[in-house]
Design goal:
This protein is mainly α and 256 residues long. It has 14 helices and no strands.
Length: 256
């Protein structure tokens, strides 16, 4: 099985930053892209995707352990790892998005614009991570036994073969944009108050997971002076690792 390369995935994600027709229209495009992921119909690919994402998250936690361990950063680190880089709840979240789009006209009156925009950017980032990681999982299945435990060398040669360098750098650019949005919008007392008022509506219509997805962003930034600075430190190290992978470093994930 062949997965199309990164240009097919990254460009639509970045283009859908603009809102058109409806403030929730971007969610419809993201949902369609999510539904096109191959792992939905392929149990072996799904398992390998889960394993690849587990390896990636372990690598990220190891690389950024000092940054993540700081008390003011712990909630953001958890939000980052559990929400922004995909995860087991994304299927359920996608189902809630599909239902929300059926009530788009009513939902737009209830949910603050800036909360929608920030939520969409978060979902874009999580989806892009899944798209790129699905490519990795498919390549791993093609080149290695399905039951072989993923290690650093397997991942190194796979990333080089896929040539995801530009797409991964775009992923970091999108993350940087999200950091600015979190600082700009989610620190607003008025927005936070309005968002809290939506909790009852979200529960009534069974959008609790989506509400939590956005709400955890509010909680994560509260102890921090600047989300952008936290993410800039993260992004700087990630760029170094991407560069090391594609410049032929023999142990790119161990670079500091």
């Amino acid at each position: 099985m062949e997965i199309k390369r990164n240009s097919h995935y990254a460009v639509p994600i970045l283009q859908s930053l603009g809102f058109y027709m409806s403030k929730l229209a971007a969610l419809d495009e993201l949902l369609q892209q999510y539904q096109q992921l191959a792992y939905h119909q392929d149990p072996k690919l799904k398992l390998r995707l889960e394993q690849a994402q587990a390896w990636l998250k372990n690598r990220i936690e190891h690389t950024h352990q000092e940054l993540f361990a700081q008390p003011a950063h712990q909630l953001m680190a958890a939000y980052f790892m559990n929400r922004l880089y995909g995860g087991p709840e994304f299927d359920a979240l996608a189902a809630q998005i599909a239902r929300l789009l059926k009530y788009a006209h009513k939902a737009e009156k209830k949910i603050p614009d800036t909360a929608i925009q920030t939520g969409v950017k978060s979902i874009q980032l999580a989806l892009l991570a899944m798209q790129l990681d699905e490519q990795v999982a498919a390549q791993l299945l093609q080149d290695f036994p399905a039951d072989q435990t993923i290690d650093d060398e397997m991942m190194r040669v796979t990333l080089i073969k896929l040539d995801q360098q530009q797409a991964r750098l775009q992923q970091l650019e999108l993350l940087d944009e999200l950091g600015h949005s979190l600082d700009k919008y989610l620190r607003s007392f008025i927005l936070l108050t309005a968002f809290k008022m939506c909790k009852g509506v979200a529960h009534k219509y069974q959008f609790d997971l989506m509400y939590s997805f956005i709400g955890e962003g509010f909680a994560a930034i509260k102890p921090m002076k600047s989300t952008s600075k936290f993410l800039q430190q993260f992004i700087e190290k990630e760029r170094l690792i991407i560069s090391a992978v594609h410049s032929g470093h023999p142990q790119p994930f161990s670079t500091n």
